[in-house]
Amino acid sequence: MRNKENKPHFDTGEFLKKVILPGTVILILILLFWGDNKPAIPDPVPLNAEWYTPETARGEILVNTVMPGNCFICHSVQVPDQNVIRPQFAHPTVKLDHGVNDRCYNCHHIYDRDNLAGDGETKIKFATPEKLCARCHGIIVRDWKEGTHGLRQGGWLVKDGATPINFTCTECHDPHSPKFKYKIAAPAPTWPEKTLRQARHSDDDPKSAYLTESIQERF
Amino acid sequence: MSTEEQKDLELKNAEKPEPAISRRYFLAGAACVSAATAVSLSPLLNAEEVPSTDDFIQKHYKQLSDEDKKEIFAKLEARIDKQYGVTATISDPQPIEGVEFAYVLNLGRCIGCRKCVYACMEENNQSRSPQKQYIRVLKMKQGTVNLETSSHDYPEKEASSEDHFYMPVACQQCREPKCIEVCPVKATWKEKDGIVVVDYNWCIGCRYCEAACPYHARRFNFAKPQIPTEDLNPDMGYLSNRPRYMGVMEKCTFCLHKTRRGEYPACMEVCPTGSRKFGNLRDPKSEVRKIIEQERVFVLKQEAGTLPKFYYTFAK
Amino acid sequence: MNKGSPGVISDLAKTILIGNRTYALWMFALIALSLLGLNAFSRQLAHGLYTTGMGDEVSWGLYISNFAFLVGMAAAAVMMVIPAYIFKDEEIHKVVIFTELWAIAALIMCLLFVTADIGRPDRLWHMFPVIGVFNWPMSMLTWDVLVLNGYLFLNLYVCGYVLYKKYKGQKLVARHYVPIVFLAIAWAPLIHTITAFLFQGLAARPFWHSGLIAPRFLASAFSAGPAFIILVFKIMEYFKCCTIHKDVIAKIRIIVTVSLLVNLLLFGSELFTELYSGSEHSIHLSFLLGFHGKSVLAPWIWSAVVLNIIAAIILLLPVRENSRFLNVACVMIVVGIWVEKGLGFVISGFIPTPLGDFVQYQPSLNELTVCFGILAFGLLIYTALLKIAVPIINGQLCHRKNDN
Fold it and tell me: What is the CATH number of the domain that holds C30?
């Protein structure tokens, strides 16, 4: 900085030749070799259509496929057994797992298998199962009619005078085993490797466990 | 050194005819620095997205006239055609009068299948790689609502687990959004129907809104978004799902290109268990209004003062 | 000989360009580092912020950490200006301009760090009031833009005025610059308080949502800034630029000691609040300290705490008079405060995310290079400014009058 008169004069030319020029060349080489390291991002892959196709919770292959045709063909000649809980020959895959129901004829009309059982001996069509379901699940059917339960078709903006269309009960719930067994699930989100994220598939917080343990387990 | 000696030295220097650095050396040094600077700027030649002059001078969305918008949309559609080979339509539906959107999610029904996440990705043209997802489904143990012990990356096989419940979280479209308060350029704002939108051509990418959001709802495009051509959804909205740029924010917009036409958002349409309800809060006959009035609903992080429009309920 | 403006510029140019071997090597190294940083930034402009270690979870990283730290360093110049102008300390008054020049260099670095962090720097014009949209007064970032640029201009004016007058050999007219100095005294804590408000106004980040952030910021800034100034003065003495009276160093040392103790007190206070209650609100601090699973930041924050405590002890013992111990303590303070403010505050506010997800943050090589490049560029500017200022203040560099 100063001290020109104390030290020998600093020779700019020498410094330029010996330090700056080679230094610049090295710097330029570093810059060129470092090059343009574009971050490695994998190519985009189209999504699996299963993950975004709308369907009801009963979207899987219906296990309890009803037989096609007129039920009356077979059922006209048989004398109905009041307490049957599992069909003998036909409909072998039907397993009744519907709460306290232990009798097919709780829902199916015992004399007219083309219809469902209403109060007394009234008949309910298969196309309007909500009338049957309302016999036990009245509150839910009320909600369903309002649209607060179940899936609604169309859009939120219902044109004047039009009635919103809901999916029927059996389009989502398997009547013989109504609990959802919907199993199509889509993959977890992915993070870039640089996020250094440790996977945590389930919560294993001991403190939270206290909140949900049964008393018997603790004592 | 005394002042006189200093003055003598100055005068001596002043008498010297040649400068202390010769012009040649100065120019050589300057040439070295310039060459090195030019080389150091060379990666810009491989820039993935270079804004055009029109992009550069484009005004804020709210300052655009209708003709401006038509021009801009036509330009964007041409660009999409060129890049993806897909004919897209960019619409700009305005908020419907007397409509305020709300969303209700029934945690008693959600089975954590994540179809809403991917339907949203598909509908809104989100980047597949690096992956951008607006909705994050949290898996929590029955009995606790502790977000810090929730699982974000439970594998598919663990969906519909009996001991857990699932909580999808996306933008809550707050009534008092914290994100719009902190944006330095007002690139994000709340529309009349309650949807908080982002003008992708105005955002400067400072990510202050991402820091301010209590629900981790905003996403930033750190890299250029990549969407495979076959997945591109051609039904686009200017403020919602048109392909975004590198370096701008994005977020859930309640699929405004659909909902402002009276349709349901993609996440609601795809939900197989009917956990999601969407509608107009001001309409007494809408599902959302009925649930909010009749069921016990709650919102996330009420203490943050955001007054979200996204309600959760535990109805059976 | 020369007369008028060309003389000024050629004088300044010659002063900056001519120096001894150490100076030339130092400047060459800084230019080289700056160019490497520019190269890394070009890469970032070309490929987006994906080249950094940031992600949607930790969306502010090393750039904003350095920004917060350097705003503090810039504000700390006020700790020298107050003794010089309010208490009229003669010795400090002689060297106060070197701290004001450091404020300029630090502010330039701050602005560069913010520019490096922006996703679309080509759209920065959107922030201008009339041609763009300026969300003032709602957005704290706009406040920050105003006060930082204001402070930069204040310091540029004061330093420019003083140096120009001294260079011309004219007397300084007090009322032309002293009111601006007093304005800068009030402005300096303001810039750092507003930077703190940027963070502490966010209810979404409970780690930042505390009233203690602004006082902590100021306390840490007023210990790290003057500590850095002590080191600068020691270096200047080593290169025989000027003689700094030992009372000056002693007084700055006292400022550093008090600020450091206040900073440790505030940090201890936060530790107690978070950890005593055992509530879930302490999750950020627990994770940072390594109590909640593996944390990459834990070794850093523990080292910073240890460094600060040891430095505080050194500054309280009689060995503080010893120059070597003082230098070591100052280096410890600067490093410790940098870690505490950057890694221990900005980055750990993001972990866990508002939805409770834990990620780690590691800056990428590109990001680090940009940071070092900007720091080198700031030091380059500061060295150049000092190279001009020292001879002018010492009276060696004067505008040569036309003798003919």
Answer: 1.20.1630
